[in-house]
Design brief:
It is built from eleven helices and twelve strands. It has 312 residues and is α+β, with helices and mostly antiparallel strands. Helix 1 packs across helix 11. The protein is globular. The model has no long low-confidence stretch (mean pLDDT 92). Its EC number is 6.3.2.4.
Length: 312
């Protein structure tokens, strides 16, 4: 059954270029799946975005936005107000996942393994190390590793980071977990597989923006070659995190695997996983025998089942 689909892309966050690439890929995939597709650029004028969506009169909206206002519950609220079914998670789940401090509290309450950490002000960070080094400084509500800094033992960058911080007056500080970067995508209520990510950075231990999106920025090993108990723990933790936040559609959970201490730490859940050619969700879906067009088609049909009725 062909559907009329609006692909919402762009946005005004620092992840706009990634969203445009996600939107382009998704739109092409949905056309290949036999749907009538219109791309809507969610720019700085919300009224214009609403007008464009009303003019499109879609059966369902594919939310391909990333970052603040796109995956934090804001645009989800607009779409709810308009009565339009949309892909991925609800207002509440999106807001919780985007707030790294709130989500880690949810994970801890659910018994999931999280790193030691706390929220600090920039004055506190400038004055002293809030945790033993090495530790990680993160914006509370950003995606794609924007603003993430690692303060290593012997580093003198702490005060520089505090002085140049552009993400509000607070940050989440967590212990640095050495080891490997693992990720697990959840589709519906089922974890797909585990990917081991090797970043092509100077240290090879930080999956930053370039590692995520630049060609050759990282190498993905699917499935991850890790001990079976760790592999299974990652799958179950991703499913539990997805459920604890109340996610729907698809999500992706990111982990650090500390091999020396045989521990797996949940870092965060992304409710709007990237859908570019180098993105992890399409890659894991393909490993499980789900093509890119099939994945996009499943997401829009799941949205109709979850938030609306199928058209006659």
């Amino acid at each position: 059954m062909s559907l009329k689909i609006a692909v919402l892309q762009g946005g005004i966050s620092s992840e706009r270029p990634v969203s445009l690439r996600s939107g382009a890929g998704v739109a092409q995939a949905l056309v290949e799946a036999g749907h009538d597709v219109l791309r809507v650029d969610a720019g700085p004028d919300l009224v214009e975005t609403i007008r464009a969506l009303r003019a499109a009169c879609p059966d369902v909206v594919f939310n391909a936005l990333h970052g603040p206002l796109g995956e934090d519950g804001a645009i989800q609220g607009v779409l709810e107000w308009m009565g339009l079914p949309y892909t991925h998670s609800s207002i509440r789940a999106s807001a919780l996942a985007m707030d790294k401090d709130a989500s880690r509290r949810v994970f801890a309450a659910a018994g999931l393994p999280v790193a030691e950490g706390r929220v600090v002000t920039m004055d506190e960070l400038a004055a002293a190390d809030p945790l033993p080094t090495p530790y990680v400084v993160k914006p509370i509500a950003e995606g794609s590793s924007f603003g993430v800094e690692i303060v290593r033992t012997g580093s003198n960058r702490r005060q520089t980071i505090a002085a140049g911080w552009a993400y509000g007056n607070e940050a989440l500080v967590e212990e640095y977990i050495p080891g490997r970067e693992l990720t697990v995508a959840v589709l519906g209520d089922r974890a797909l597989t585990v990917t081991d990510i090797v970043a092509a950075s100077p240290t090879g231990d930080f999956y930053d923006f370039d590692a995520k999106y630049a060609p050759g920025g990282s190498v993905h090993h699917v499935p991850a070659q890790v001990p079976e108990p760790i592999f299974e723990q990652a799958l179950r933790c991703a499913e539990a995190a997805h459920k604890a936040l109340g996610c729907s559609g698809a999500s992706r959970s990111d982990f650090r695997y500390d091999e020396d201490n045989a521990r797996l730490i949940l870092l965060e859940v992304n409710t709007q996983p990237g859908m570019t050619a180098t993105s992890l969700l399409p890659e894991q879906a393909a490993y499980c025998g789900i093509s890119y067009p099939e994945l996009c088609d499943w997401l829009v049909r799941d949205a109709l089942t979850t938030r609306g009725k199928r058209p006659a």
